[in-house]
Write a structure and sequence with these properties.
Its EC number is 5.1.3.14. It is built from 16 helices and 13 strands. The protein is of the alpha/beta class. It folds into 2 domains: about 180 residues, Rossmann fold, CATH 3.40.50; about 150 residues, Rossmann fold (3-Layer(aba) Sandwich). The chain has a 7-stranded parallel sheet, sandwiched between helices. A 6-stranded parallel sheet has the order 10-9-8-11-12-13, with helices on both faces.
């Protein structure tokens, strides 16, 4: 195990590297728990998600401190973006060497920070370690695997994640089952997710299906987007569809005429509080997002994940999530809307109790002693 200066010193401390909206939700309870312990910490925003709707609104909603460092890297291809991230992070870590770098999830900012820190001999902690879809066509899967191999401390959200890490030869003393910090954020804000108020403010129908799609496999191929648009129009024949459109897929869905159906309501990207309120008030959710699979598990909202696999199978065994193909999306959703499926199965996943941030903070503050 690598060694570092004591956490909490004024010369070296904990640097949280965040870059995209899922990172912000996961980091918020960890930052808050460490603040309560008096740890010296810095929030570094890479700027992977950079406009107000995808970034700044999340900091406001979640009570995260304004980033101490903002690299402003922006978008680009995987290679160009990751390269720019690594250059910016290397400069920052060389000028202000952290005692520990904490990375979150599976975005390009995560793998870039892990690579740079490892090469500089800086310890790395990975929050949400061990998730596996076993689908290497997903860029996120590559990011997860490499980040876990480079990390000194690995925080797992579920028992199967611990098993995956063991199967890959990760030493058990590096792995900590802590639960899911994203659920800390969800449970801590339950009384702020006002579906009725959002419905009134945005003039939404009483009953609707919420949709969110942004994965490359779903939105990068115009022909595929055209087929998905047909399926969403078929859903809209049954019930209204409300879809905040991620910037990644906006042009393709516009070209396919998604908004042409009178019962499809397209929205700009929503902040955290509004998005979860939209999810909470939905009759069902159609998504390809990992975080939405987790949130609907706790909210008890039927979730149809438009993917052939998931790195979060616990949301199927302990939640309301179902994997669906384009072909079976409509019949499965019809059953959900008719009340014939989509009920919660089993109990809430272990340790998804709102205290994951505290568990992570406890390990981080003890790690170098």
């Amino acid at each position: 195990m690598a060694t570092s200066a004591p956490l909490g010193s004024q010369d070296t401390g904990i640097v949280h590297v965040v870059g995209a909206r899922p990172n912000f939700v996961k980091a918020a309870p960890v930052v808050a728990a460490l603040r309560g312990r008096g740890a010296h910490q810095t929030v570094l925003h890479t700027g992977q998600h950079y406009d107000d709707r995808m970034s700044a609104v999340f900091f406001r909603d979640l009570g995260l401190p304004t980033p101490d460092v903002d690299l402003g890297v922006g978008s680009g291809s995987h290679a160009a973006q990751t390269a720019a991230l690594m250059v910016g992070l290397e400069k920052e870590f060389t000028a202000n060497t952290p005692g520990m770098v904490v990375v979150y999830g599976d975005v390009n900012s995560t793998i870039a920070a892990a690579l740079v820190a490892a090469k500089l001999g800086i310890p790395v902690a990975h929050v949400e370690a061990g998730l596996r879809s076993f689908d290497n066509t997903m860029p996120e899967e590559v990011n997860r695997r490499v980040t876990d191999q480079l990390s000194d401390v690995l925080f797992a959200t579920s028992p199967e994640a611990v098993g995956h890490l063991a199967a890959e030869g990760v030493s058990p003393d590096r792995v900590h089952l802590v639960g899911n910090p994203m659920i800390d954020t969800l449970l801590g804000n339950l009384d702020r997710f006002d579906a009725d108020a959002l419905r009134a403010r945005l003039d939404l129908p009483e009953r609707y299906a919420a949709a969110t799609l942004h994965r490359p496999a779903n939105v990068d191929d115009p022909a595929n987007v055209a087929r998905l648009t047909e399926r969403l129009h078929e859903i809209a024949d049954l019930t209204d569809v409300v879809m905040p459109v991620h910037p990644r897929g906006k042009a393709a869905f516009d070209a396919a005429g998604l908004g042409d159906h009178p019962r499809v309501r397209l929205l700009e990207p929503l902040g955290y509080l509004d998005f979860v309120a939209l999810t909470r008030g939905a009759a069902a959710v159609v998504t390809d997002s990992g975080g939405v699979q987790e949130e609907t598990t706790i909210l008890g909202v039927p979730c149809l994940t438009l993917r052939p696999n998931t790195e979060r199978p616990i949301t199927i065994t302990h939640g309301t999530n179902q994997l669906v193909t384009e072909a079976d999306l409509l019949p499965t959703l019809t059953k959900v809307l008719d009340g014939r499926t989509g009920e919660r199965i089993g109990d809430v996943p272990p340790l998804w109790d709102g205290r994951s941030g505290e568990r992570i903070a406890s390990v981080l503050t003890q790690w170098s002693r």
